[in-house]
């Protein structure tokens, strides 16, 4: 091989004299370009900063990763997070720097920098982010229903780094494990199990969690009383009657139900709740042993058509009355218009008048049942 000026000549190039001048010129140009690319192209290489490949920081702190690259042509660089999205919510972000503002515990993991320039295969480097944070505690249920002779489980879900210590309290007194009181851990879930529940076991419990960075706690109530009823009826009904239906958690049968309901006279600028009707009833119940839930219903009659009503439900078992349900509101249809109910498809859709009235109630902030006047 020899060179003339900046042109590279190959052995056997004289054979090009046997072809046309134009074709020979194109062939020389192609050969020259090929060798130029071969001699001066460099596949990508990367260097991750910091060189240790690991960053340890506290929750809320800013973090920056840098990916230095070499190669010809200049490589393009993009960042991604292994097994997840970047904190920005994107799959990838382009650029040599990746800045994370106020990192959260969910941001911990392995971040990858990938460089490519079309020469050879793309190259990837990794850096691990370790986030230290104070305990974050939540509960599966803040209220647990049980009864004498039964078993109760109280669960706290704990996230903490460094690992945290978990202590259980009943009414401010620290608890210790016994044959009847067990404390266990499964992953992030810490469980206090009380066997053969007795009357003194009812009350307020707390799980207190602490590590070297901070402390957190959550409360759980263990009670033999029913839980607050959850009203599951529709928000609109026939003109003069309403099938009120609710679900309540109680391991013991419900022996009495209190129903409070009233009519609300309301328009765009006027809101006046009527007098409460107070009923004590004993409806039948369907018990689900898997969830300790009891389903009940009661039909309210003598309602006024084309009106807004609201109600509260409170249930009682052998341990006493539970808490009131959340306030529930519904709309009765106009006289002569029946709302067809079907077990599989539910009820017909509400009209515009119903939606307008409910919007008005929301705007006025109807909280009278809780003792607050809008």
UniProtKB/TrEMBL annotation:
Xref: SUPFAM superfamilies: Fibronectin type III, Immunoglobulin
Keywords: Immunoglobulin domain, Repeat
The Ig-like domain, residue ranges: 44-124, 135-223
A GO term from the CC aspect: plasma membrane
GO molecular function: axon guidance receptor activity
An example Gene Ontology biological process: synapse organization
The name this protein goes by in its record: Ig-like domain-containing protein
Lineage of producing organism: Eukaryota, Metazoa, Ecdysozoa, Arthropoda, Hexapoda
